[in-house]
Amino acid sequence: MAVRFTTETHLLNAVTTFPDRSASGITQRSFRVGQDQAEITRRTAAALDAIQKVFAEGDDAVTLFVSHHLEEIEEAYWQKHAGTPHPTDQQVLDLLVLADHWDEDDDEGIQTFDFTLPGDATNYLISVYFTDDGQVDDVTMES
User: What is the spatial distance between Cα 52 and Cα 94, in angstroms, rounded to a whole number?
Assistant: First the structure.
């Protein structure tokens, strides 16, 4: 189950628990005790803003992510998730959900935030990297 962020309250609730797949289905795992939830919320919002900004500027990674998925994913998926069989680029970006956050030294770190489409539609991610002081450093597409 993916989480779609529509308001700051939903965003805060979404990062408090994170969906995790297990053999029996969806379970909830809490983030590490002491993890700064306010900073996770801030970085998630900053990452989504950065994705929108670089897309508007014509960034190749985000443009490729959107165009690839518009070409490859069936109309039924788009109808279910976007309410139309032929979504706009913006509607695709609006569907992005937080898949995970991590860094090289810590699986629950906050240096990299990965976003994807809901419903296990793809293995591709839009990854947003942060500097040590919490500023967006880069936005890439990963698989």
Answer: 9
